[in-house]
């Protein structure tokens, strides 16, 4: 009995006195596939300019990054959508905080069409009808008589979440929507498919055509360009975020400060995104 | 002399590679020259398209499987009660008294949850527990219907065996709670936390949420009616919550009837509960997040002492259970109150300290039947899924012995390892 008590007392004291032993392992960044190239470029240039600093960047999707933030397996989560309420509550359950949200760049979420597709513009409502399966033929939105082939992202993707919340207004994607791992795969699929439509970060639009988007039938059709994303007139403009468990400190703060500096923001533009200011 | 040895190995490796490379090139070149005219660019593309279709088919199958989610957790525990205590307690009321086991290893909770989430307008959950008494039992089983008229499904109807939507502690999972057990007041009023019924949760604004529900009323741990509802009317429960994120506050109300089984017609008495809870969260630059939270329950509830006083207990010679002559069944219930106040402070990302005071008074009109407890604990998060918890409960259980009262020694040490998946 005495032994058990002593063992418990020792364990209790050890746990109560345990401090964080995480120093010296560098900075880990996980999350959005949309942001993974951007994050890697930020990390490379930051490490080049700061000898001895290690920043490891991996993708997996915004949802995966947020789960890693909650599980304590990453210092920074990259996310191409805001955290959901239930994710914030999970974070709060574990760390007693709602997390720290830091916008780090802007992005225009492009709607990709095949170069041969005669459709030039779509309204948000038409996109919603297309992706929920209410509209299934290009003829219904001013195109040729052909079945619309939908391409999209997995549900762990922040791009998927942003599109679902802002275009589908929370409705579910049509069952016929083919989910692909990464925006590059979506772009490739649409480039090969004359009846395909996809969505993803504007930086990936190579070999496909961006579709102009109207907020509603009365609004002007807007293309995703640096100017329209920057001034917010493009309807599918979004922020890209870093999420932390608590206010940044030490090496993490230095890295984030650099990302937000003119040098970090310039790099975001070089990769194909848009600066905050 | 590790350096020259390393250099020698490197040189040998380079030599081997330099000799081997032309051989490999030759080996590859020979068949390639024969096949070059056969494999065209278009054929390669077709092969790739075939693979793409296969991957697409696999992805579609995987998407279907992703709708089935398994989750759960295991809590393995070492408990040690005080030497002259007669109990090592398991939560619940009445708690399990195990005289022989003053200190022991046991599995407090071993839970497996299966969720089928179509992502459409409904969801089903089946949840099992195999801890404590080593028998697998159904903990929860319910279907949730999501409203189709709001984008984020702001109104959700759940029917089946589920947590009673009252207060903060009842619905908070044991896998995330900072101390191993809930407060005593919650244990007594909502023993087992679950009941069978229906609830409607509505999110009116990002901050305001209401819940209304109808339940059998006995709860899954009811001694006499765990599977049936002897009262015609269902128990009503409601909750209004305002959540700002760093400060949340809520009020809960419950109204129903208690049934006390007797030989012949059972006795029924009114049952009501009112609860208030609040949680405040903050973040310190170095230590990290912390929270102060509290909850208070006021209840009109069947009381075990009243039952003893008002009911003739059955004996082998006279196996009937009847109200004593002239006893009023309404007096089987008493006004009760209880709650807790607790403080949690994270220390970095891995460690956490907790202090809680909780109290329970089963009859506010009687002295020296109160229960109170100071709990102090620490959590160490081994990784993202496993944590180690150590707690000490200093318990005061006021017990009447004639004109005096005593406090039996029943303090408790707990060491627990939890893995959540």
Can you put this structure into words, describing what you see?
The complex is a heterodimer of chains A (277) and B (421). Chain A is of the alpha/beta class and 277 residues long. Chain A folds into two domains: 2-106 and 239-271, Periplasmic binding protein-like II (D-Maltodextrin-Binding Protein, domain 2); 108-237, D-Maltodextrin-Binding Protein, domain 2 (3-Layer(aba) Sandwich). Chain A has helices at residues 2-17, 36-49, 62-71, 85-95, 124-132, 158-166, 183-192, 226-230, 250-260, 262-271, and strands at residues 27-31, 55-60, 76-79, 100-113, 121-123, 149-153, 178-180, 196-201, 209-210, 212-214, 237-244. In chain A, strand 6 (149-153), helix 6 and strand 7 (178-180) form a beta-alpha-beta unit. With 421 residues, chain B is an alpha+beta fold. Chain B has two domains: 1-28; 77-108 and 161-420, Porin (Beta Barrel), CATH 2.40.160. Chain B is 17% helix and 47% strand. Chain B contains four helices and 20 strands. Chain B has helices at residues 2-35, 41-66, 184-189, 304-310; strands spanning 68-81, 103-117, 122-129, 137-146, 155-163, 194-203, 208-215, 235-243, 247-260, 267-284, 288-302, 311-312, 322-323, 333-347, 351-361, 371-381, 386-397, 399-401, 404-406, 412-420. In chain B, the strands form three sheets. Chain B has a 16-stranded antiparallel beta barrel with strand order 1-2-3-4-5-6-7-8-9-10-11-14-15-16-17-20. The two termini of chain B are 49 Å apart. Residues 13-32, 83-88 and 90-94 of chain B have low confidence and may be disordered. Chains A and B meet through helix 1, helix 3, helix 4 and strand 7 of A and helix 2, strand 10, strand 11, strand 14 and strand 16 of B.
């Amino acid at each position: 009995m005495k032994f058990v008590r002593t063992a418990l007392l020792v364990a209790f004291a050890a746990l109560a006195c345990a401090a964080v032993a995480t120093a010296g392992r560098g900075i880990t960044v996980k999350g959005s596939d949309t942001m993974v190239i951007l994050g890697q470029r930020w990390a490379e240039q930051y490490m080049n300019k700061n000898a001895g600093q290690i920043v490891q960047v991996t993708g997996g999707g915004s949802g995966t990054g947020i789960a890693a933030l909650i599980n304590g397996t990453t210092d920074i989560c990259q996310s191409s959508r805001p955290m959901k309420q239930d994710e914030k509550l999970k974070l709060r359950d574990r760390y007693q905080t709602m997390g720290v949200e830091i916008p780090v760049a802007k992005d225009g979420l492009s709607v990709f069409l095949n170069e041969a597709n005669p459709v030039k513009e779509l309204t948000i409502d038409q996109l919603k009808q297309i992706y929920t399966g209410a509209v299934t033929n290009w003829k219904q939105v001013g195109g040729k008589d052909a079945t619309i082939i939908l391409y999209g992202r997995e549900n762990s993707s922040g791009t998927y979440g942003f599109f679902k919340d802002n275009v589908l207004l929370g409705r579910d994607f049509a069952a016929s929507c083919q989910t692909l791992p990464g925006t590059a795969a979506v772009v490739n699929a649409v480039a090969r498919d004359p009846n395909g439509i996809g969505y993803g970060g504007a930086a990936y639009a190579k070999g496909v055509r961006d579709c102009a988007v109207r907020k509603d039938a009365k609004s002007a059709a807007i293309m995703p360009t640096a100017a329209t994303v920057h001034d917010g007139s493009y309807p599918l403009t979004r922020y890209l975020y870093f999420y932390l468990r608590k206010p940044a400190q030490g090496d993490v703060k230095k890295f984030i400060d650099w990302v937000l500096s003119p040098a970090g923001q310039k790099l975001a533009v070089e990769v194909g995104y848009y600066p905050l200011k | 002399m590790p350096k020259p040895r390393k250099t020698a190995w490197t040189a040998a490796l380079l030599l081997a590679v330099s000799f081997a490379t032309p051989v490999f090139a030759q080996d590859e070149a020979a068949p390639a020259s024969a096949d070059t005219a056969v494999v065209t660019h278009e054929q390669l593309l077709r092969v790739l398209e075939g693979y793409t279709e296969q991957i697409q088919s696999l992805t579609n199958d995987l998407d279907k499987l992703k709708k089935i989610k398994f989750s759960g957790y295991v809590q393995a525990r070492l408990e040690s009660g005080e030497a002259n205590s007669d109990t090592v307690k398991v939560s619940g009321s009445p708690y399990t008294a195990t005289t022989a086991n003053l200190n022991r290893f046991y599995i407090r909770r071993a839970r497996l949850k299966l969720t089928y989430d179509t992502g459409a307008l409904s969801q089903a959950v089946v949840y099992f527990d195999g801890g404590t008494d080593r028998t697998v039992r159904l903990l929860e089983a319910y279907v949730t219907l999501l409203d189709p008229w709001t984008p984020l499904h702001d109104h959700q109807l759940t029917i089946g065996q589920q947590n009673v939507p009252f207060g903060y502690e009842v619905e908070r999972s044991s896998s995330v709670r900072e101390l191993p057990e809930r407060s005593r007041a919650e244990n007594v009023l909502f023993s087992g936390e679950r009941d069978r019924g229906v609830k409607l949760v509505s999110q009116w604004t990002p901050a305001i949420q209401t819940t209304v529900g109808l339940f059998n009323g006995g709860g899954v741990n009811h001694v006499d009616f765990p599977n049936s509802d002897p009262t015609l009317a269902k128990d009503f429960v409601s909750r209004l919550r305002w959540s700002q994120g760093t400060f949340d506050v809520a009020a809960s109300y419950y109204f129903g009837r208690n049934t006390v089984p007797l030989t012949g017609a059972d006795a029924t008495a009114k049952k009501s509960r009112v609860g208030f809870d609040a949680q405040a969260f903050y973040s310190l630059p170095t230590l990290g997040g912390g929270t102060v939270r509290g909850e208070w329950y006021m209840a009109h509830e069947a009381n075990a002492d009243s039952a003893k006083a008002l009911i003739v207990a059955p004996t082998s010679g006279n196996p009937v259970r009847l109200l004593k002559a002239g006893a009023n069944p309404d007096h089987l219930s008493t006004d009760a109150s209880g709650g807790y106040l607790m403080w949690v402070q994270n220390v970095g990302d891995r460690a956490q300290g907790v202090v809680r005071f909780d109290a329970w008074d089963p009859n506010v009109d009687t002295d020296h039947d109160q229960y109170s407890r100071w709990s102090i604990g620490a959590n160490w998060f081994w990784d993202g899924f496993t944590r180690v918890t150590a707690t000490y409960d200093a318990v005061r259980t006021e017990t009447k012995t004639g004109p005096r009262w005593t406090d039996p020694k029943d303090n408790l040490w707990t060491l627990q390892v939890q893995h959540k998946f």
